[in-house]
């Protein structure tokens, strides 16, 4: 009888095309869109600026400046129509006179963020100051080689001025490593749609009442609904990972790489899906109509996702919001996936998140069994 109940649940889910789209198609599409959309934001490659230089001076100094800019990998000299910055070198700029007050004219062609403009100015300033130092060097050499040599030792290359060490423990994900776990977590909690729809339809059709009259316990009824969704959640995870590994790279975006262990990935998915089933089951047994269940479920998903780092990555949230994120089961699942994908985590590394997810699931399932038992005693 129990196996027949599980089979019935599978058939009902497979017949619900909208639910299947919400569980599989929607998160897959989100992974593709968001991975590409956030590709540049999460990129840790060197920044580049497109600029066009118009040399009206055509002097040795101005040519030297253009050469230095061209050699700098930070800048790409492009055609005027493609440039973000137009650099105009006025006539007389290269006059080797320290009293020369002529300035470069720089026009910003496109809408750029203020931090991008400040970074461009800092990078460009280095070449201007180097140029001025060279002029001073030449002037001083007429009077003192020692002073000129002292000026010549001044370097504005950051590699000669300071050393930067990166904290390797604070790994940052790329766009795909962030998108895949995010939409696995968010998509998994959408089981509220098929679960609540099926539950309320069974209530209306007296299926639950008939099962109760056959002395089938509430625990068995709930368990028969849990098992199919645990299987579906594993399929969801596998599909989303495959999308990240094989479809996302087709859009010129980094592929998902699983650095951690596969048993940890399946164990965390089991824990997360159990938590999602707990929430879905609680809403399904508490709601009185499908509309009520899907509304409450949708709002709950969005709130848990917003708090838990699905909408905005946790590492760019303010400290207070990062603390608040820790109350969301979506955040626990997301942290666990990032441990596996990014830090090469094994089962022991995700035990903490899995324990919290399973505990959360046991609490929500316990409450839902209590509510369902009460309702069935009253004839639903």
Strand and helix order: HHHEHEEEHHHHHHHHHHHH
- Whole-number radius of gyration? 31 Å
Quickly count the helices. Answer: 16
The helix content is: 55-70%
Helix/strand/pairing class, anyone?
mainly alpha
Strand content: 5-15%
Which term fits the overall shape? elongated
Give the biggest sheet.
4 strands, mixed
Uncertain regions spanning at least 5 consecutive residues? none
Strand order, sheet with most strands: 2-1-3-4
Quote the average pLDDT: 82
The count of β-strands is 4
State the distance separating the first and last CA atoms: 22 Å
Question: What topology does this entry show?
Answer:
Elements: H1 2-15, H2 17-37, H3 39-42, E1 49-55, H4 60-71, E2 75-77, E3 85-89, E4 105-108, H5 114-141, H6 145-152, H7 158-161, H8 175-188, H9 192-204, H10 207-213, H11 218-247, H12 262-286, H13 290-308, H14 319-325, H15 329-343, H16 351-377
Parallel strand pairs: 1-2, 1-3
Antiparallel strand pairs: 3-4
Helix pairs in contact: 1-11, 2-8, 2-11, 4-5, 5-6, 8-11, 8-15, 9-12, 9-13, 11-12, 12-13, 12-15, 12-16, 13-15, 15-16
